[in-house]
Amino acid sequence: MATSLDPRTGAHRHRGERPTTRLRRAALGLYTYAEFLVLALVFLPIMAVVAVFTARDPGRRLRGRWMRRFGRLTSDLTPLWRFTVEGRRPPGIDHRGFVVVSNHQSSADPFLLSHLPWDMRWIAKAEAFKAPLSGWLIRLGGDIPLQRGVRASIERMLAAARATLAAGMSVMVFPEGTRSPDGRLQPFKDGAFNLAIEAQVPVLPVVLHGTRECRPKGSLWFGDASAVARVLEPISTVGLTLVDAPALRERVRERIARELAAMA
To answer: Scanning 8, 198, 203, 213, which has the fewest C-beta atoms within 10 Å of its C-beta?
Structure first.
């Protein structure tokens, strides 16, 4: 069946779709908002208690684990999204830090990435921490805020990321810096690769496909879609210096682009 993009919601609209089908999708979208709200209210006090008792943990492992449980449960309970994880779990990731990098297509990406079978601490834009409910959860989850273009914020982010890696916990970065407006892979920024080289930890590429249909950038609604997170082989940074960062950045981007094209 042919599809087009709904100009009001940004979601995919099926040509010739019956009114009953559109009504069903709208009802499921409202249900998804409702279950997110209910689960957020359930998880908030639990995560607040966890945050108090684990305040001295530099990796924020347990706090992040509760946040990912929220992401998995929320996405599993909506009939609109069907998520799959493919690829091999990297050896040693439970006790050694990796810099995990992924393409960024949608606000559904964090929900899909929550299904990866290891702990991570995420770097996210500072604005996300200010949103009602979701921002409170992100803060309690122990993720790392970044205000782009503000030197003091960048330095605090780097210090937190280095401490996290040193504690044997992985750091998750979207190297495009923001969601792609059209699904095409954007240029990568250097930060994630500088961080990996400085810490001498591997870069772990993850490719996301299908999340844009789950919720495109700028849309307030949900699409009925399947999405996949494919874990690629890690790339060592042993012996590399910051001079090698641009080459590493492009090597990782090419691998993600190649895999994304194959998945499409």
So the answer is: 8
Distance in angstroms (rounded) separating the CA atoms of residues 209 and 115: 14
pTM of this prediction?
Answer: 0.89
Measured CA to CA, the distance from residue 112 to residue 172 in angstroms comes to: 13
In order along its 264 residues, the chain shows pLDDT tens digits of: 333 334 334 444 445 556 667 788 889 989 999 999 999 999 999 999 999 999 889 899 999 999 999 999 999 999 999 999 999 999 999 999 999 999 999 999 999 999 999 999 999 999 999 999 999 999 999 999 999 889 999 999 999 999 999 999 999 999 999 888 888 899 999 999 999 999 999 999 999 999 999 987 777 778 889 999 999 999 999 999 999 999 999 999 999 999 999 998
Domain layout of the chain by residue ranges:
3-263
Compute the distance between CA of residue 40 and CA of residue 214 in angstroms, rounded to an integer: 20
Question: Which residue matches tokens 């992040």?
Answer: 64
